[in-house]
């Protein structure tokens, strides 16, 4: 992959997304949600998307706005049902969006495997439950394990805290969540950050996502939203 | 196994949610790494002794989680697994999701406490899906926690609002994990699951062991 490009804005960074793409979307609720990149994806217009994310949208913004715009064919996530997931709930109940529920750690590890060139892995999580139905199983050390497939995206959208012009990323607190694994696992990786500093100004020891994984960078203000009705 | 007498607390009613949270907190060993599931188990944190060196893990990528954040301390980048703003304690660490769940599956987490719809005598857990046709299934990290933590504790009411037992012979709801629950803490008693489905009763609240035997469809060892 060639060097990271700093895009003029989110629209430039999201140019050329094809219909039917698989899009990995970072964030856990609103923490780490790449709001400006999703807004640009909505303007860009690609539809029939498969979205891989921890949740299926909160409120009316971010991933929920993409769903509301009718661009998503399928959601792969661990936890769609929340206090404010009304956009997804309505689409799902109307049969307008497909859902694949994946245990949260399995979701993270499938994405990690996709980014690390691993062809799948056996995990004890989900063994004996409906989520293992139809999957190959194997007894390892006396315990039933389930074969899980890697996940890769055509596009990954992540929100980090700061970047340097080499594409290195650092995150902030629990907004890190899925960002580092998703950044490894897509053909095109776009990161939005609150600040882009010249190469050399980030401490190399503190870099979480090395620039090799990042294709395009966009500077954008963080939206400071908290999930309503969280408990 | 040495049989110990059941402590029957019949001079009082069932435990309140706060009393139950405090009861569970007393059984969490000092120095443990602990994950408290979303919902009621999060209340256990308020009852952990501050000097016990217990470190709270939240699966969205943090060890050393502090109490809920209020006012100026609310930071949208710092939440618990229920997406409630929280604080960080000295010695806290942040990490990504794959590392967070490696801590579970890899056996590094000592204790987790989960809510439940049903638990079977063998320790099968059902807590993610009612299986109803119009229900939207949402598993989150429950299956990973159920399989991964060294000790899996359940915090729940013993009966539904309709009076149906939640400690059952076989779970009727879709499973979260098979034979994964060790101890079940309820408003009416504390129970240890067993590999043969027989449940050891450690203590009761507001009901006698004999009364529990009439109301629970599992074999109870007193």
UniProtKB/TrEMBL annotation, chain A:
InterPro entries: 3-oxoacid_CoA-transf_A, CoA_trans_fam_I, CoA_transf_BS, NagB/RpiA_transferase-like. PROSITE patterns: COA_TRANSF_1 (PS01273). Keywords: Transferase. Gene3D superfamilies: Glutaconate Coenzyme A-transferase. It holds the Pfam family CoA_trans. Belongs to the 3-oxoacid CoA-transferase subunit A family. This is 3-oxoacid CoA-transferase subunit A. It comes from Kitasatospora saccharophila. The lineage of its organism: Bacteria, Bacillati, Actinomycetota, Actinomycetes, Kitasatosporales.
TrEMBL record, chain B:
Keywords: Transferase. It holds the Pfam family CoA_trans. InterPro entries: 3-oxoacid_CoA-transf_B, CoA_trans_fam_I, NagB/RpiA_transferase-like. Transmembrane segments: none annotated. The keyword Transferase applies. NCBIfam families: pcaJ_scoB_fam. Belongs to the 3-oxoacid CoA-transferase subunit B family. This is 3-oxoacid CoA-transferase subunit B.
């Amino acid at each position: 992959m060639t060097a990271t490009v700093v895009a003029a804005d989110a629209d430039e960074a999201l140019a050329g997304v094809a219909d039917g793409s698989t899009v990995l979307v970072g964030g856990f609720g609103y923490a780490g949600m790449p709001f400006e990149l999703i807004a640009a994806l909505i303007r860009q217009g690609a539809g029939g998307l498969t979205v891989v994310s921890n949740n299926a949208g909160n409120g009316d913004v971010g991933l929920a706005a993409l769903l509301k715009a009718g661009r998503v064919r399928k959601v792969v996530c661990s936890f769609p049902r929340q206090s404010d997931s009304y956009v997804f709930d309505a689409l799902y109940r109307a049969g307008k969006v497909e859902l694949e529920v994946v245990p949260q750690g399995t979701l993270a590890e499938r994405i990690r495997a996709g980014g690390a060139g691993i062809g799948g892995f056996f995990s004890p999580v989900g063994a004996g439950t409906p989520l293992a139905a139809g999957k190959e199983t194997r007894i390892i050390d006396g315990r039933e394990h389930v074969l899980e497939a890697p996940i890769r995206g055509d596009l990954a959208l992540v929100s980090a805290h700061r970047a340097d012009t080499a594409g290195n990323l650092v995150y902030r607190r629990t907004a890190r969540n899925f960002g580092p694994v998703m950044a490894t696992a897509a053909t095109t990786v776009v990161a939005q950050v609150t600040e882009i500093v010249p190469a050399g100004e980030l401490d190399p020891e503190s870099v979480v996502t090395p620039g090799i994984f990042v294709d395009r960078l966009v500077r954008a203000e963080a939206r400071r939203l908290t999930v309503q009705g969280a408990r | 196994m040495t049989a110990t007498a059941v402590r029957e607390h019949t001079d009082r009613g069932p435990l309140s949610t706060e009393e139950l949270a405090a009861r569970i907190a007393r059984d969490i060993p000092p120095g443990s790494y602990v994950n408290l599931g979303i919902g009621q188990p999060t209340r256990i944190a308020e009852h952990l002794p501050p000097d016990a060196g217990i470190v709270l893990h939240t699966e969205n990528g943090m060890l050393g989680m502090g109490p809920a954040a209020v006012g100026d301390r609310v930071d949208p980048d710092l939440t618990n697994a229920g997406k409630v703003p929280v604080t960080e304690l000295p010695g806290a660490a942040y990490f990504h999701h794959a590392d967070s769940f490696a801590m579970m599956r890899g056996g590094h987490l000592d204790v987790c406490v989960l809510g439940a719809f049903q638990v079977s005598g063998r320790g099968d857990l059902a807590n993610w899906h009612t299986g109803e046709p119009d229900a939207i299934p949402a598993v989150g990290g429950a299956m990973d926690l159920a399989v991964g933590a060294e000790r899996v504790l359940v915090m729940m009411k013993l009966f539904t609002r309709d009076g149906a037992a939640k400690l059952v012979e076989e779970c009727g709801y879709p499973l979260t994990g098979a034979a994964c629950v060790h101890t079940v803490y309820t408003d009416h008693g504390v129970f240890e699951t067993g590999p043969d489905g027989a449940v050891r009763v450690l203590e009761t609240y507001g009901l006698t062991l004999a009364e529990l035997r009439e109301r629970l469809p599992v074999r109870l060892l007193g």
